[in-house]
TrEMBL record:
<dbReference type="InterPro" id="IPR027396">
    <property type="entry name" value="DsrEFH-like"/>
</dbReference>
<protein>
    <submittedName>
        <fullName>DsrE family protein</fullName>
    </submittedName>
</protein>
């Protein structure tokens, strides 16, 4: 399972936020957390400021479209 975060919500993936511990649990259990780099740029956040283990994708929309073509299901939360 992958969770792709975009828009203003990417700031919740920053190191030291209230969600950091919850993100660590998800990551330890094999759930990939990915932040949209376009959204990060808009929020003034760089990859070094993300909670350890959180990955990035250049553009969430393009990444999600590619995953769907590969057979993945998309659920918007």
């Amino acid at each position: 399972m992958e969770v792709v975060v975009q828009g203003a919500a990417v700031t919740s993936l920053a190191r030291g936020t209230d969600l950091s511990e919850s993100l660590a649990v998800l990551l330890r259990n094999g759930i990939a957390i990915l932040a949209c780099e376009n959204s990060m740029r808009s929020a003034g956040l760089d990859a070094g400021g993300l909670t350890a283990g959180v990955g990035t994708v250049p553009a969430a929309v393009a990444y999600l479209a590619r995953r769907q073509w590969e057979g993945w299901a998309y659920v918007r939360l």
